[in-house]
Amino acid sequence: MKMIVGLGNIGQEYAGTRHNVGFMVIDELAAQNNVTINHVQGDALTATAHIDGERVLLVKPTTYMNESGRAVRQLMDYYKVSRDELMIIQDDMDMELGRLRFRAKGSAGGHNGIKSVIAHVGGQDFKRLKLGIGHPTKMTVVNWVLSRFSAPERITFDETVTKAVDGLQEWISTDDFNQVMNRYNG
Length: 186
Hints:
- This protein is α/β, with parallel strands linked by helices.
- The protein has six helices and seven strands.
- The chain has one domain: Peptidyl-tRNA hydrolase (Rossmann fold), CATH 3.40.50.1470.
- About 40% of the residues lie in helices and about 20% in strands.
- The chain has a seven-stranded mixed sheet with strand order 2-3-4-1-5-7-6, with helices on both faces.
- Strand 3 and strand 4 form a beta hairpin.
């Protein structure tokens, strides 16, 4: 079983914000596979999908971002998911809007959600999908990540979500993460 977690903040006031790109990607992956993420399980909303013969747990933590790891650990323990089968989808301010990057492991890079996941799962060696949200120039970091995309930015972001979902589907179907990184990073 693979477990794919989209990071974000729960609640309507955060819907569509830059910090919620993980939720947006996971919602699109669910929609393309005709599942709805609405099962309350521990500190998360979940759905189980069968994608290319693989059982996949789709997860949206119901904690705030800086406690995401708690929800991840609960589900990993319940389903006996290893870090090798875990994929976390996150926003990245150090990448320009429209870029995405699959990573096999790495540090938190200042991302509080990833810090929490690392602390709760006991290591940095889990897969990530990072989506660029750009860096603020005229506002604080907090205001930036909690802001929504402008109309032109949203067009670019939606194209990035499509590429992200394609990459996730390829990882699920081939289990060749190096191939996915080579194809989608760049």
